[in-house]
Design brief:
about 425 residues, mainly alpha, Hypothetical protein af1432, about 55% helix, about 0% strand, globular
């Protein structure tokens, strides 16, 4: 059965009905149209100038949020196709998964979460939903209210990594992929976006808890985990910070326990590492920058991604008969795979994220965003871009107006946040 046929009318529904388009080209599926809308969204273009691990302007090679999202999308699409689900849905969710990230990544998210307490907090995934269903200009309802890109229910649901409100969020622990501490509550919807959230989550998932993620969202989340665990190590190797032939593994194990897997002892992690080192492409000599070294490094990243996704695919098939779509099955990630990913994360964390120069820079970035929010809130609506100035004037109270200021700042790239701060507040040392 074609995977498209496994998605019913409710899965294809849009908040605002749209008539078929009269075009000369072959008609696209609803999910292909969703993908195109995310690709062409302004928020997608801005990802090219937003921090992934290190700032996008520091080197031509390192990944930014856009290149990372493209790589996550490729992994998600391939895994989705292998499972028999609709690959356009998982790919679109992957392309959209970081749209809500503010300047300076999770470091900036931490600041905005603190400053937006009076209006219900800030969370990058909740901001993604807000962008897709409100802030991106594409479609308006009968009352003249923006509904954002007007994506299908199945695609919006796949984009929802944390399908619960702030009130249901668990206490954060551990660290993010960029090394910043997890201090921000993880949730997927602000209170004033609940109507569209409740719409996209209907009908309720079969387990009755209301917090179960659809399979396509699980694929997106795993693809994100796989991509950054492998690619952060690759970036660290090329930057000269990581050499897999001389790693201080006992020190890395301390980082793995502190950041990712608290209960893992050295013996277990040594066994996991031995399994990774059995890959034919695991390096036996140091990276030297030659084309041969670059090719070997690319083969390693390709083999690792294939290893992780292949093991997940086999485990998922072994656990259920399918079909592997929506709420009819769940993705199964073997414990061995979870630990192998944690080992790679630990390498990047130890040699890249804990560097002293990066920690100092992150402190300056937080100061900059805090000052920018304060100054824009004082000047608003002057200083806000036209769409946000309009939102500010229409806001019902101070909390609503603060939310608009946060929306404006979250929309900025790293470079534009620095430029806006310089123009409105003066310089703040060296914040590249």
């Amino acid at each position: 059965m074609e995977s498209l046929e496994l998605y019913d009318e409710a899965a294809r529904e849009r908040l605002v009905p749209e008539p078929p388009k009269r075009v000369a080209a072959p008609e696209r599926t609803p999910f292909e149209r969703d993908r195109a809308r995310v690709v062409h969204a302004a928020a997608s273009r801005r990802l090219a100038a937003k921090t992934q691990v290190v700032g996008p302007q520091t080197d031509d090679f390192v990944r930014n949020r856009l290149t990372h999202s493209l790589e996550v999308a490729q992994v998600a699409r391939d895994l989705s196709r292998a499972l028999g689900s609709q690959p356009d849905i998982a790919e679109t969710a992957a392309l959209a998964h970081d749209l809500g990230h503010p300047p300076f990544g999770h470091n900036g998210e931490r600041v905005l979460a603190q400053l937006s307490e009076p209006c219900g907090g800030f969370e990058g995934n909740a901001q993604t939903l807000r962008l897709l269903t409100r802030l991106e200009a594409k479609t308006f309802d009968a009352d003249g209210v923006s509904v954002g890109l007007n994506l299908t229910r199945a695609t919006l649901d796949a984009c929802t990594k944390y399908p619960w409100p702030r009130s249901a969020a668990e206490t954060p622990r551990g660290v993010h992929a960029d090394g910043s501490p997890r201090t921000v509550l993880k949730f997927g919807v602000y209170d004033d976006d609940r109507p569209v959230f409740d719409w996209l989550r209907a009908p309720a998932p079969a387990d009755g808890s209301g917090s179960r993620r659809c399979l396509e969202a699980q694929v997106m989340d795993l693809a994100d985990d796989v991509a950054y665990s492998v690619h952060d190590v690759e970036d660290g190797i090329v930057a000269g910070r990581v050499d897999l032939t001389t790693v201080d593994w006992p020190a890395v194990w301390e980082t793995v326990r502190a950041w990712y897997v608290p209960g893992a002892d050295d013996a277990l992690l040594d066994t996991v590492l031995a399994g990774l080192q059995q890959q034919d492409s695991w390096p036996r000599s140091a990276y030297d920058g030659s084309r041969r070294s670059l090719a070997a490094l690319k083969n390693l990243t390709s083999d690792l991604i294939g290893r992780f996704c292949g093991d997940v695919q086999h485990a998922t098939f072994a656990a259920a008969e399918g079909p592997f779509v929506r709420y009819r099955a769940d993705l199964v990630v073997p414990e061995a795979t979870r630990l192998e990913i944690a080992v790679l994360k630990g390498v990047a964390a130890r040699y890249v994220m804990q560097a002293e120069d990066r920690v100092a820079l992150m402190g300056r970035q937080r100061e900059l965003l805090a000052e920018l929010v304060t100054e824009l809130a004082r000047r608003a609506p002057d200083g806000l871009q036209r769409p946000f100035a309009d939102d500010w004037r229409e806001a019902a109270d101070d909390a609503g107006r603060l939310r608009v200021v946060v929306d404006q700042v979250a929309s900025l790239t790293d470079a534009s946040a620095v430029a806006w701060h310089r123009r409105l507040c003066g310089s703040l040392g060296s914040v590249p």
